[in-house]
Amino acid sequence: MDIRIIPLGPLSSNMYVVRRAGILYVIDPSVDPDPVRKAVPDLFDFSQAFVLITHAHYDHIAFAREWSELLKCSIYMSPDDGQLLASGEGNCSSIINGEVKFDLPYKDIYSLDHEGVEIIKTPGHTSGSVCIMISDGDRKALFTGDTLFSGSCGRTDFPTGSSAEMMSSLKMLSTLDDAVEVYPGHGSHSDIGTEKQYNPYFL
Ligand SMILES: [Fe+2]
pTM for this one? Predict the structure, then answer.
């Protein structure tokens, strides 16, 4: 499994391009695909592709349509975040980049039946927030969006956020194996064992 971190989205959000067994997973497509394709052309040798979204905030979906058109593949997102797309307040573009309204042709991410990919429901940052686990043999990589950060967790004061749901989502994530690698929507990567040791929101 090849995981590339592209921390160039709005608010320095992390976009991830993962390739496993010839399949491409673009997670939280917040960066223009053209320069990425030119910078890392080797990544674009794939047999099948998916665009996966952890939650419907602008800094995680800004170029979702462009990536899905480029890769000729579907966008997958939780329908619980569908209501956030159509308003600048809902998708938080109004606090970043003026008001951007999205009309994305997405599919229900829970309908994704793909071996080695698990969608974990983790409401709290938004009601439709998910974490995405991609496995490759014994290696497991968890893409946590704005739910779990290295040493912290996401805000719960945006529309549909809930601190109570965030706490129960984090509690559930803390039961995962220590070796699970953690790739957050912002900041550096980590693993579950390190977060159990140092993240105050895991205590
Ligand atoms: Fe967010």
Answer: 0.96
